[in-house]
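U., I forgot to send this yesterday:
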Amino acid sequence: MCHYLKKASQIISPKIILQQLAKTGFKSTIGETDQKLKLKLIIQPKMDQATWLTQLTEFIGALARQTHDSEDNRETKVTPS
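Result:
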């Protein structure tokens, strides 16, 4: 397991990243550099500019929504001392 997963998965699980990535037409490589996630999206020859831009926007939007939802859940779970 990569080091970044422990901290990053508290916000966005690797499973969510892979599920959202699978909804795109990109080929990709995923790795770690200096304990940071490195995700390389490869635009396929059959993808025109509108297609890959739309898919990239949807992918990032889904991750942003997941981040926002995770932050909301953490706020509601905080109990006053």
